[in-house]
Amino acid sequence: MDDWEQSWSAAMRAERRGDAATYAWLLGEVAAYLRPRLCQRLARLGQGPDLAEDILQEVLLGIHLKRHTWEVDRPFTPWLAGIVRYKLMDVTRRVRREAGRRYVPEVAEWFEAIAAPIEDLDARLIDKEKPLADLPHKESDVVRALAIEGASVGTTARRLSISDGAVRLLFHRALARIRGRAVQALKDIGS
Amino acid sequence: MSTPEATDQLMAKLAAQSGQAVQPWPLCRRLCLAALVSLGGVALLAASLLGVRPDFMASLATTRQIFKIGAVLALALGALTLALAAARPERGRPVIQALLPGLVLLLLGAALDPSGSLWGRGPTSPLFCLGAILGLALLPFVLIFITLRHEAPARPGYAGGAAGLLAGLLSALGYTIACRADSGLFVAVWYGLAILLVTLAGTVLGRRLLAW
After folding, report:
1. Which residues of A touch B154 (CB under 8 A)?
2. Is the pLDDT reported for residue A105 higher than 60?
3. I need a surface site. Which of A67, B111, B168, B171 has the fewest CB within 10 A?
4. Range(s) of the domain holding residue A155
């Protein structure tokens, strides 16, 4: 955090001198930091990367339009966190208004998501994807939604435009198939 | 729109504008200036529209007037701290306790000096004071909102409330030059009510005007 504070606040000071390259680097850094965190969180909520990119753009624009409110003798990262928090809250409110009943994370959850390390989760995701690869399309979609993204049966049913019962059936079949393959794989290893 | 390529384009566009933001004075200095100008303005307006109370200089030596001015001044300084913190995007510790000294003075004044009718008459009637403080608050309200408009408050409603509180207190402080009622109880109740109303207005308007 201290390293970020130093290099990022230095970049903000460079921006004041009109150093476009350093400022572009800073915006890129912020985007690189936020993008995977936003994407991952939204994926778990069953949202596409579109919304994550939308939010990211809002945040970058917020930083840009309010950059004069950062005073050089104050720490930069708390300021930045404030801008991000505000924009997340803003977008959450907007999306919730537009979507009505669709689930949108609370600010606290956002922050938990953004603060949490994601490497281990990514690794686990990759492992989980492997057994899904050979499943029929619908089955793998259902397993991904229920077991990996943690969506509810109802949400998954709506997203895939099928009935709740069909979701349960597909999930059941998929698990049986995965189990069968695992047993087969164990036998192969044994022989 | 929502692709990483579009984001890259956006970043390039923003970077091209580097160094172009107007750097105003630090917020602290601007807000203090706005507060001082409004205070002077309110006092001037009160003096010219309502007239300075004839015994103003003499009243400065009385305990009740000292308590009144002391309480409002302390509250105004507290509100200034509040507004300063609220105007920033950083998550700050709540600084509500900045109002504590002023509140204690106000309540102490009311407890020590319950003399004087709560329902005075003429230029010392509660409605007159209420109306005067509300009317005079317009000037500080506008000046402070203009000052905060360019900031990035974490919570616009809260920032608006702090701005309203400050405006109401500055108005009350300037109005003491004309106000003939300075019994502790009267001040706590009616000044308090007027200031609360301005705070409320600030909260409501802040949600709209201070959002960014």
Report:
1. 82, 85-86
2. no
3. B111
4. 119-190
